[in-house]
Design brief:
Helix content: under 10%
CATH class of the largest domain: Mainly Beta
Radius of gyration: 26 Å
CATH topology of the largest domain: Maltoporin, Chain A
Distance between the termini: 44 Å
Largest sheet: 22 strands, antiparallel, barrel
Number of strands: 40
CATH superfamily of the largest domain: TonB-dependent receptor, beta-barrel domain
CATH architecture of the largest domain: Beta Barrel
Length: about 775
């Protein structure tokens, strides 16, 4: 006890010492293109979570900044975002920054990339969308709103379950990061949703293509990077309330947040509740048990010392999601019926930044506890199982057919070397320890343990203002061990005389290792065309379901059999991106070719067990290719008008000529948008008419059916009202305005001939109190 008291006193002494609380600051003035001061420009240092706004004289001040190299992001509506690098070696530094007008969009600092550059500076093309802009789509879930980004789709089971698809790849091939740590929530199944609420999320970044160099296994197809909500600016307190109402599902999505920051200490709290009844199809019927309820709570604390910055965040998410199977009993109830999923996830993350003289050390820890239950019928707990478990813990798991508890501890240590001329280099080690435990009556995947470790190094070299290179190499090692288990198979063809057979699924012990690399080149051709060429390899070790599953997966209503002989998936992708833009016109073309070896998928065997179709996991070489193309016209002198059009396509083929399953249909999106800014009270008024055209998908796998083409018309409008210290944002969306009857090719309910939702009118209100 005395020893702990001594340590506590020592820490308090350090925190209160003059050296630990030195007053380094960055001051400056923000001017526009005619040297007039800019009022309300945002100045932010991403890794320090410190920000402020410029006053009526364009002046700003950031206090308590650690000595070392920092990148300031300066943004203001109607101007290009500036990313200014400063090296703070004395107690103060003063800047004068001029902004350049831009009519299209504000550039974003990309957090998922290693060097925190603006998108315009990045060698790799990464899509970034603010959660505020995604909310304007009127989507009932976070995943559905993300699917509006070009190149991103979702596999759906009703409205409550959506799984990300990036350029035709899904499942464990798409890695999700939240709060800066990898999200692990038993995401192997097609009917396992994202498991995240948009409450407390600032923005979404999408890496389309292999990102194994940065994130290791499971980033073979891409990454969804969810940036948490920023802390309040220094010495500010904000309260925010978001409320959405949905006509189709009679739904409501509520979020309430409070955040406050002092000179060094920052706090943030946010709670959310999302509840929906069964969704309605265009003929007026509701899809039985497509209802869902979601609770979400997020909290964070940040502390800035002289040479050390730390940030701790916590997220609790609990969801009850009905699994729809038919259009049956018509009700407006929100209480889920059998079958349904009960998901509970705790996410804890700790991010630490140590600032040395000319370099920096980042050390991040993540701990995730995920409990996934699936209820199909009334089940009692087998008292003979898990006798060594705590009684209270076992009681909490009673009644579920499938009940899996997954615990994941992840770590990420990186050293940012001092910048040498035009070279920047990062080296590090990442990994995780994972444990899966079963408590249910049935077992789909066994109790198992996974250990990962990866070593990486990446560098960027700015040849000149127009040309830059970035590359890196990584080595990963994964060790996987599972326990054997018994399954009682009850063949009751004759009720009075039935056999019971015991099937033993043997445990496995395997290891996988792989080298991956990436190399990218960015150039400004003819002083106007931004060209990016990226070559990257990726890999994915087989997951537990693919290796060891043996049993009925109630979410998909099929009997799954794993294959312990599966090898790692490996791929090599070539990306080419071309962008041209001036003050009134933008055009882009992104093309890719992705070669995959040992692609893993489940295919039916033609057999049935216990009245369920049997699926086995197999693998074959494959390839995917396609891209995204579009333009954005802002005609002069109609500064309020925007015309946008984009087309996205992907084709997936096995080497034997068969097509891959669950490849999204080609999509052509056209938007006419108006924006009015600069008014005093009612500002940022917008309207948008959007026509999404989905082409016929006839390039289907052997076990899929063709999906006909369809068109969806959407109408959106809104704006912001300002009252002293309160801002009110109003958004109104009419999705599927013409009440079109259609079925998405990626809908799991397609096999049951159940269409997607009909017309949905969404009212969104956003209150901000300063």
């Amino acid at each position: 006890m005395k020893r702990y008291t001594f340590y506590l006193l020592l820490i308090m002494t350090l925190l209160l010492s003059k050296e630990a609380w030195s007053q380094n600051s960055i001051k400056g003035t923000i001017l526009d293109d005619i040297e007039a001061p800019v009022l309300g420009a945002d100045i932010y240092i991403e890794q320090l979570h410190i920000g402020t706004t410029s006053d009526e004289n364009g002046m700003f001040q950031l206090q308590n900044i650690p000595q070392g190299s920092h990148k300031l992001s300066i943004s203001f509506i109607g101007f290009n975002t500036e990313n200014v690098e400063v090296n703070l070696v004395s107690s103060d530094i003063e800047l004068n920054i001029s902004l350049i007008p831009s009519v299209f969009h504000m550039d974003e600092v990309i957090v998922s990339a290693p060097f925190n550059k603006l998108q315009s500076e990045n060698v790799m093309k990464i899509e970034s969308k603010s959660i505020e802009s995604l909310r304007k789509t009127g989507a009932p879930t976070l995943m559905q709103s993300i699917s509006s980004i070009a190149g991103v789709s979702e596999i759906t089971t009703g409205t409550g379950i959506g799984k990300p698809v990036i350029r035709g790849l899904s499942g464990n091939r798409v890695l999700v990061y939240t709060q800066g740590v990898r999200l692990e929530n038993q995401q192997f199944g097609n009917e396992h949703g994202l498991g995240m609420n948009d409450s407390g999320i600032e923005s979404v970044e999408v890496i389309k293509g292999p990102a194994s160099l940065l994130y290791g296994s499971d980033a073979l197809g891409g990454v969804l990077y969810l940036n948490p909500e920023k802390f309040a600016y220094q010495n500010e307190t904000k309260i925010e309330v978001n409320q959405n109402f949905y006509s189709n599902t009679l739904g409501s999505n509520t979020s309430v947040g409070l955040k406050t920051s002092k000179d060094r200490l920052k706090l943030i709290f946010r709670g959310g509740y999302n509840s929906h009844a069964d969704y309605e199809v265009p003929d007026g019927n509701r899809v039985t048990n497509s209802r869902f309820n979601e609770k979400d709570f997020k909290a964070g604390i940040g502390l800035n010392l002289d040479q050390f910055v730390t940030e701790f965040r916590y997220n609790y998410n609990q969801s009850e999601i009905g699994i729809p199977e038919e259009i049956g009993e018509q009700t407006e109830s929100r209480s889920v019926e059998l079958p349904y999923q009960d998901l509970e996830t705790h996410i804890l993350s700790l991010h630490n930044h140590f600032y040395l003289k000319n370099s920096k050390i980042d050390f991040n820890l993540g701990y995730i506890v995920n409990n996934r239950k699936e209820f199909e019928d009334e089940h009692g707990h087998n008292d003979d199982e898990h006798e060594d478990e705590d009684e209270h813990e076992v009681e909490n798991h009673e009644g579920a057919a499938l009940d899996m508890n997954l615990k994941t501890l992840s770590y990420d240590l990186k050293y940012n070397f001092a910048k040498k001329g035009k070279f920047e280099t990062i080296a590090g080690v990442q990994g995780m320890f994972q444990n899966n435990k079963n408590f249910g009556e049935e077992i789909l995947i066994p109790d198992a343990r996974i250990n990962d470790i990866g070593f990486l190094a990446t560098s960027t070299f700015e040849i000149n203002e127009k040309n830059s290179l970035q590359g890196g190499i990584r080595f990963d090692y994964r060790y996987l061990q599972s326990d054997s288990y018994e399954i009682e198979e009850d063949h009751d063809e004759i009720e009075e005389d039935h056999d019971e057979e015991i099937t033993i699924v043997e445990g496995i012990e395997k290891d996988y290792n792989n080298f991956t690399f990436s190399l990218g080149y960015k150039s400004l051709l003819f002083n106007s065309i931004t060209t990016r060429i990226n070559l990257a390899s990726g890999f994915r070790a087989p997951n537990l379901a693919e290796l060891t599953s043996y049993g009925v997966h109630h979410g998909t209503n099929r009997f799954e059999i794993g294959n312990a002989d599966l090898e790692s998936e490996q791929n090599f992708q070539t990306d080419i991106s071309l962008e041209y833009g001036n003050q009134h016109f933008e055009i882009y073309a992104n093309g890719f070719y992705n070669k995959l070896n040992n692609y893993i998928f489940a295919q039916p065997t033609g057999e049935t067990i216990d009245e369920h179709d049997v699926y086995e996991y197999v693998q074959n070489d494959a390839k995917l290719y396609g891209g995204e193309f579009g333009f954005h016209l802002h005609p002069h002198p109609f500064d309020w008008l925007h015309l946008e059009s984009s087309f996205e396509t992907v084709i997936g083929e096995q080497d034997n000529g068969d097509y891959l399953p669950l490849i999204p249909a080609n999509k052509w999106a056209n938007t006419i948008r108006t924006e009015i800014k600069g008014l005093k009270k009612f500002n940022e008024i917008y309207t948008a008419i959007i026509l999404d055209s989905y082409f016929e998908q006839d390039k289907v796998s052997e076990f899929e059916t063709t999906t006909p083409s369809y068109n969806l018309l959407h109408l959106r409008m809104g704006g912001n009202l300002s009252f002293n210290k309160m801002d009110l944002g109003i958004n109104l969306s009419f999705n599927n305005l013409l009440d079109e009857t259609y079925t998405s090719h990626l809908s799991i309910l397609k096999a049951d001939m159940i269409p997607n939702p009909g017309r949905n009118i969404v009212l969104g209100l956003n209150f901000k109190f300063l």
